[in-house]
């Protein structure tokens, strides 16, 4: 096991959570976008993570033999949320239908803010773990003096 594994795991978490915060920010920014390039309201996007896997057979075999479980995290996909759009009565809106209803994006600001807080806390936890690893390495180097 390399002494840099903990740093690699924390850095993969930082990268993944940063992307998650970017997607959440995009959702919040488009919470009122009623018409996109394809003519429909903006659809909320969701990030899915998975455990980072080594790609070669040799790496899989070594991990099995050495019982290395943690490899970090990576983004599996960014998918659109297929929940229904909200219908809002606004007959003066340019995108209103004949009954005066406008299809609004399926973005709930409260949900997005809770997800943003969660992503921020996860990011902070990865920073703390990274700093702890760095501190332990520095202390180990001081022992040799």
UniProtKB/TrEMBL annotation:
State the GO CC annotations. Answer: bacterial-type flagellum basal body, rod
Q: Which family does it belong to?
A: Belongs to the flagella basal body rod proteins family.
Against Pfam families, the record matches this protein to: Flg_bb_rod, Flg_bbr_C
Query: For this UniProt entry, what is the primary localization, expressed as one broad class?
Result: other
What does the subunit comment say?
Answer: The basal body constitutes a major portion of the flagellar organelle and consists of four rings (L,P,S, and M) mounted on a central rod. The rod consists of about 26 subunits of FlgG in the distal portion, and FlgB, FlgC and FlgF are thought to build up the proximal portion of the rod with about 6 subunits each.
Q: Where is the Flagellar basal-body/hook protein C-terminal domain?
A: 99-142
Parts of the chain that traverse the membrane? none
Q: Which UniProt keywords apply?
A: Bacterial flagellum, Cell projection, Cilium, Flagellum
**Flagellar basal body rod protein N-terminal domain boundaries:** 7-35
Task: Provide the species name.
Answer: Tepidibacter formicigenes DSM 15518
The record's subcellular location field reads:
Bacterial flagellum basal body
What GO biological process terms are annotated to this protein in UniProt? bacterial-type flagellum-dependent swarming motility
Record's protein name: Flagellar basal-body rod protein FlgC
Q: Entry's NCBIfam families? A: FlgC (TIGR01395)
């Amino acid at each position: 096991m390399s002494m840099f594994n903990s740093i690699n795991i924390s850095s993969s978490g930082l990268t993944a959570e940063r992307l998650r915060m970017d997607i959440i920010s995009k959702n919040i920014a488009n919470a009122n976008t009623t018409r996109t390039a394809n003519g429909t309201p903006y659809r909320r996007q969701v990030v899915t993570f998975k455990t980072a896997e080594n790609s070669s057979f040799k790496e899989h075999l070594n991990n099995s033999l050495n019982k290395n479980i943690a490899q970090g995290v990576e983004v599996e996909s960014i998918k659109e949320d297929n929940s229904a759009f909200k219908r809002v009565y606004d007959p003066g809106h340019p995108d209103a239908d004949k009954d005066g209803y406008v299809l609004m994006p399926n973005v709930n600001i409260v949900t997005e803010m809770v997800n943003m807080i969660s992503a921020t806390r996860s990011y902070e936890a990865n920073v703390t773990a990274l700093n702890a690893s760095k501190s332990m390495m520095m202390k180990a180097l001081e022992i040799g003096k």
